[in-house]
Amino acid sequence: MSRATVKAAPAVTTLLRTRNRRAGLVTAAVGGVAVLVSWAVVGDQGPLSALLGTVLVLVFFSAGTLPFVVAGDGTGGRAGLAFVVLGMTYVLRILLGVAVYQVATRARSVDSTVVGLTIIGCALAWTNTQVVLGLRRAHQPTLEL
What we know:
The chain is mostly helical. The protein has helices at about 5-40, 45-65, 65-70, 80-105, 110-135. The two termini are about 15 Å apart.
């Protein structure tokens, strides 16, 4: 391994950690608004349902950065590994998310409409925050294959 590769990986990890922290805070704020709105509109089922949707989105998107932490900035020849891990974890995250959603929405204390709308709102918040933070940065590390 070259000396530059060892130094580059922590920079990418720090960048991902900062972006994820900010996106997580924005997503949690949107989830908090969803909890309040669903409590006012739906009643007692609303807050638990909105909280479930928020947690599903936060776990799904946070786990999505794991392959890029493993690969670093891609200069050490680990970019291919990152995409293999990304594909495997993506399928696993989708299956786990659908399973949790199916089990939770069968409970009487969870409103499936609130969960679904919260997932959509929180996913949009996470994605838009990542896009805005990505466009702010002049030079962004990329994975080269």
